[in-house]
Design a protein that fits this description.
Strand order of the largest sheet: 6-5-4-3-2-1-7
CATH topology of the largest domain: D-amino Acid Aminotransferase, Chain A, domain 1
Radius of gyration: 23 Å
Number of helices: 12
Number of strands: 16
CATH superfamily of the largest domain: ATP-grasp fold, B domain
Largest sheet: 7 strands, mixed
Strand content: 15-25%
Distance between the termini: 57 Å
Structural class: alpha+beta
Length: about 400
Amino acid sequence: MIKVGVVFGGETVEHEVSIISAVQAMNKMDNEKYDIIPIYITKDGEWYTGQLLRDIETYKDMDLVKRYTKNVVLYNKNGRFVLQNKNLFKSIVSDIDIIFPIVHGTNVEDGVLQGYLKTIGVPFVGSNVLASAVAQDKVVQKQVFECSKLPITKYHWFYDCDYLDDADKVVKEIEKQLTYPMIVKPATLGSSVGISSVDNKKELISAIEDAIQYDNKIVVEEKVSNLVEVNISVLGNYENFKLSEIEEVITDNSLLTYEDKYIGCGKKSNTGSKGMASASRRIPAKIDNKLKEEVESIASSAFRSVGLSGVCRIDFLIDKKKKNVYINEINSCPGSLAFYLWDAKDKSFTSLLDDMINIAIKDYKKNKSKIRSFNSNILSGFNGLKGSKGKLGKFGKLK
């Protein structure tokens, strides 16, 4: 049986969203194939494990987590990937065969966690460091899309320090390049956190000042008229991938909000939010075949351009009057892993998770076959730095 460590949580504004997605996934994984080991990262960066973490009710009282689960670290111990207890005895809690990160937002989805996993050498599900970082940064995404000649809306971006140094200059530059209405976004957040729709200068200033509370890079985009928002999921890697059904997003707001995605359903039910699965949508999207083919073609190009792996969701904006399609953004680890888009293709959540793990194993084996280091050691005959500027002095300090 394969031991799958499901990592979730972390120091991110999407912390709770990650918990929802992970609990959903763990409860749908095939228990005949996988030994599921929850690994929860708290908001202050501590790692905990224990089967109690598979129950969403646990997170209503965080004292339960620290009292009834084990505080651990993950590391490579002589070729074994292990969770070790951080208590006095430092006992091994469990071996891990593969990590399944179900994480959203900065510090976890953006390549930071993936970099740690890559450094210790453990196989993991999902995109690599670079693809994860690109997918998290809406500005870099757009720059990649531009290079790939994919259609995007007009935009302008800046750093928080630019605005704090000279707010008038930044606002004038935005109004020079773009026309109202506009969308203001923190560049590296997801789940619609810190996003605003603005119709005038006063609202623009307010939206920027809200967004810079979350991020040091801000992106402003022209809003698409006659808007229809559609999303599609892609499953696979650069060699082979499949496309899901296309959904049409339904919202009463001017843009899909955090509340639409995660809170709205919870208010109407005692069961709490079901994550992105609870958002209002129409599947399949009510668009003609030409638009559908265009969305699929752009999604395929974007997936390969960024170098994604596993499952992602790609969001699009359509001007239904002009029939123009614009790629909006990529989510390398989408809320609820976009399983609802695969349901419409008769792929169950369990099957989707199984496919993601199999893709990760194949990616890992292929990467292991590449030359990553040399057996020879060019320092074996090293006699110290030569030259007056390179001599090591006492205590190893350079003279």
